[in-house]
Design brief:
single chain; 354 residues; 9-stranded parallel β-sheet; 12 helices
Length: 354
């Protein structure tokens, strides 16, 4: 087994990480972060479970990192993503795990945001020989497939020159994620990706560089009432077999991504991994874990969040309402829920970090 350097991966190191995950039948959780609290919690959880991990930023998460109140929303998204990425680069090696650093769902309107970040990586690569991110996602699943693949090819050429990868989406993930998608599309037939589209993507993009594919098999962002979402992981198997047969590749040639993983059954998760899924997004469950832990603290100490000093006893509450105290509780909520995910996905104890 080849060990990889602890820290943010890119290029062949990232591709080796994917290869090992697929060969050994496990996947990595992908966590959307919104600031140093969530970043630190993810790194701590990964280190405690001896697992590698994927840290990613949506445009909204990046804007929050840069300061939600700043009137220049575009540049705040760019600078927030750069700031968060630099924080991860600084601390990932310190925590002793391999980290994949990624940007999540960028639709047509967010292409300029992705291009601005690529531009930053181009400057960094020229200066230091490394990119800022491991990969970027271009989610043009709601656009015609011709446009989707043309734009994906255009950006993949730039990314490949920087040892970076591209994630694309075919079909759509139901629900809404940070302003991308809609709550009204749960019955859309595009929730199920066609194998022929996956083949076309492989034929057009794989000669240009490395890409991963979010192929939809009924995935939905968020958590819904049981029965509302019908996952069909066999769609992934069919796509892999078609590409393998048509392109004469090895087994499971597509590097697949599972979006909308929160609330999924263990059986569906394991089946998806068996068909070549190496990454599963679990944003919604971790948001709830963070909020729930803080809510419990508030419920247990109601006076401390209304009074600096107890009006009856004069007891000071500074230790409890100190943000470091209850934000740490939120971090612990993320750590506990993410620990569960590492074990469900089978990545616990399998870090490749040397």
């Amino acid at each position: 087994m080849t060990h990889l350097p602890a820290g943010v991966l890119s290029g062949t190191d990232y591709q080796y990480l994917i290869k090992r995950a697929k060969e050994e039948g496990y996947a990595l959780p992908a966590v959307n972060v919104v600031g140093t609290n969530s970043i630190n919690a993810v790194l701590e959880a990964a280190a405690k479970n001896n697992s590698d991990v994927i840290i990613q930023l949506s445009s909204g998460g990046a804007q929050f990192c840069g300061g939600k109140g700043h009137p220049d929303a575009f540049n705040t998204r760019v600078l927030g993503a750069i700031s968060a990425a630099q924080h991860v680069h600084l601390l990932a090696e310190h925590y002793g795990v391999c980290v994949v650093l990624h940007t999540d769902h960028a639709n047509k309107g967010l292409i300029p945001w992705v291009e601005a970040l690529i531009g930053y990586s181009e400057d960094l690569f020229q200066d230091q020989g490394i990119p800022l991110f491991t990969s970027h996602m271009l989610d043009l699943s709601e656009e015609p497939i011709d446009f989707n693949l043309q734009e994906s090819a255009r950006l993949l050429k730039r990314l490949s020159a920087l040892d970076m990868s591209l994630e694309i989406e075919l079909g759509i993930t139901g629900g809404e994620e940070d302003g991308v998608g809609s709550e009204d599309n749960l019955n859309n037939p595009s929730l199920y990706t066609q194998s022929e589209d996956c083949l076309r993507a492989y034929e057009e993009l794989s000669p240009l560089g490395h890409f991963s594919l979010a192929a939809s098999f009924g995935n939905v962002h968020g958590v819904y009432k049981p029965g509302n979402v019908q996952l069909r992981p066999e769609i992934l198997k069919a796509a892999q077999e078609l590409v393998q047969q048509h392109c004469k590749t090895g087994e499971k040639p597509l590097d697949l991504v599972f979006h909308g993983g929160s609330g999924s059954s263990k059986a569906h998760i394991k089946e998806a991994i068996s068909h070549g899924v190496f990454k599963m997004n679990i944003d919604t469950d971790l948001q709830f874990a963070f909020a729930h832990a803080i809510a419990e603290t508030i419920e247990q100490n109601p006076k401390a969040f209304k009074h600096q000093v107890d009006p009856e006893t004069g007891t000071p509450y500074k230790r409890i309402y100190d943000p470091r105290s209850f934000l740490r509780d939120g971090e612990q909520g993320i750590i506990d829920r993410l620990t569960e995910s590492f074990h469900i996905l089978g990545s616990a104890g399998k870090s490749l970090a040397s």
